[in-house]
Design a protein that fits this description.
Two copies of one chain form a homodimer. By secondary structure, the first copy, chain A, is mainly α. Chain A has a single domain (19-107), classed as Winged helix-like DNA-binding domain superfamily/Winged helix DNA-binding domain (Arc Repressor Mutant, subunit A, Orthogonal Bundle). Chain A contains six helices and three strands. Chain A has helices at residues 8-24, 29-38, 44-50, 56-68, 88-91, 94-107; strands at 41-42, 72-76, 82-86. In chain A, a hairpin with a 5-residue loop joins strand 2 and strand 3 (82-86). Chain A is globular and about 45 Å long. Chain A starts with 7 loop residues before the first helix and ends in a 5-residue tail after the last helix. Chains A and B meet through helix 1, helix 2, helix 3 and helix 6 of A and helix 1, helix 2, helix 3 and helix 6 of B. The structure holds a DNA duplex.
Chain lengths: 112, 112
Amino acid sequence: MYSVDTMTTAQTLIGCVDSATEVLGDKWTPQLLRFFINEKTVRFCQLQDLTEGINPRTLSARLTHLEEQGIIVKSATSSSRCEYSLTDKGYDLLPVLQNMQAWSDKYAPAAV
Amino acid sequence: MYSVDTMTTAQTLIGCVDSATEVLGDKWTPQLLRFFINEKTVRFCQLQDLTEGINPRTLSARLTHLEEQGIIVKSATSSSRCEYSLTDKGYDLLPVLQNMQAWSDKYAPAAV
DNA sequence: AAAAAACGCTACACAATGTATAGTGTAGAT
DNA sequence: ATCTACACTATACATTGTGTAGCGTTTTTT
């Protein structure tokens, strides 16, 4: 039988990872956030074009979720158009994404 | 109209993030990998107990996927029992998880 | 000024993915 | 010899994501 004691530390840490995975674990979200490394603001149609394959409904859901989490903000550029940009909280996620990229570059340089 | 030129760099980078998100984007996977920070080897039932709520079928699928990706290896501890441990590739993912945790600690200290 | 295209979505039916619960064969523990 | 744990698999269901179409508004083009 294994020792449960040795695992308690790990167990208490789990909740913390959850809060990041609740964001990055959603399909498409890391890809979406990556655009902000090069762009200060992005628009719905840009994300749609660049993240080829994403369903507008899914994109809409992701943006709503990110906004609710305080990671991005939506601002109107005209009466019917808008743009999205990172908050400080969202900006602080970029290093994580860059880490993920570094790992990917090291182990899957040719991508798949 | 927006400039597509300014986005091409971001676009070419996407494939790279994909390879990490193909792993970390799966539900439960970050939580599962986190146990390896404290433990060199884990067993199926441990992961099941510690990741409360995970379905054994899902856990099975995750472990298979992680093994296929060369992130963990499965080794027999007896004729019918086994344990899982990280490969070098998997070990290199831990900093990413720690980054995620640092972000989570900063912005969601009370968890949710 | 009129027509066309783009924008930012929403709607619908369907496909894929994850879950609750139960169960299975084998093997260690008592 | 019996009991329990282990490492899963099975089934039916719930949730999530997708392809395609479309809608009202606004901008651009002609």
